[in-house]
Amino acid sequence: GTLERVHARCAIVATQKNIAAAIVHELPSERKEAMRAVQYAPYITVNFCCNAQLFPTRAFDFWFDDPQNRFTDIIDATSSQDAAATAPKRHTDFVYMMSAAQPLAVRKDLEREEYLMQFAQDSATALEHHIPGSRAKIEEMQVFSWGHSMVIPHVGSHTKLYPAITAPIGNIFFAGADSDLAPSVENAMGVAFEAA
Questions:
Q1: Which residue has the higher pLDDT, 187 or 49?
Q2: Residue 64 and residue 131 in contact, taking contact as beta carbons nearer than 8 Å
Q3: For residue 102, how many other CB atoms are within 10 A of its CB?
Q4: What distance, in Å, lies between the first and last C-alpha atoms of the chain?
Q5: Which helix (H) or strand (E) element contains residue 98?
Q6: What is the pLDDT confidence band of residue 174, given thresholds at 50, 70 and 90?
């Protein structure tokens, strides 16, 4: 490609902070260091499509303390829709989504179908460990890999990193899914509106 220079009154840099640190030359070194300190992890989600309810109560998100760190939480995908319905009625689909952050070292494996198939089977085994009888209720599993990496909040990230990675520098503003150091589309949209 060819290098092109664009003149504008302002710019919004909406990319991961480790990339922003490399492309925004106006950043002072301490700001670049803060952006490089933001932690990321690729992750996998597994949808369990079941023929019966897995949990005795309804909730949006169920968190687990898995000793092997195979997953963190399971979302009841239809709970919000059911709660918002005027006449509460349970969906006939019982879909649960398991989230599992992965070490950076396995990022390349997220492109391998056999790795993801084995991960899904291992996830069903992990689910059975925490919810006995759940494996027999699973009719279908859908696996999605997210190799682009999800921002991971950590101790000090909001108090030390947040101000340094979000403050504008002159007429350059920063946005992106990692700006609020919370892995959600709602945070990404909020930061984008603020930057605009």
A1: 49
A2: no
A3: 19
A4: 28
A5: strand 94-101
A6: very high
